[in-house]
Amino acid sequence: MLGFLPDDPVIIVIVLILLSLVFFSYLLLRKTILEFREGMGR
Which residues cross the membrane (predicted)? Predict the structure, then answer.
């Protein structure tokens, strides 16, 4: 296992869930902003 990761699998799962939530919300925000810009441009 990598050195900076803890050996506890529960912590690793929690970190993975948090990272995926951040990534998903970023994609959702970017899509919303792009659609909003297109709507304003018309």
Answer: 12-29
Structurally, the chain folds into a number of domains equal to: 1
> Residue 36: which H helix or E strand, with range?
helix 9-41
The residue among 4 and 9 whose pLDDT is bigger is: 9
Structural domain boundaries enclosing 29 = 8-37
Is residue 26 within 8 A of residue 20, CB to CB? The reply is no
pTM for this predicted structure: 0.61
Between the alpha carbon of residue 2 and those of residues 12, 13, 18, 27, the distances in Å are: 11, 15, 19, 28
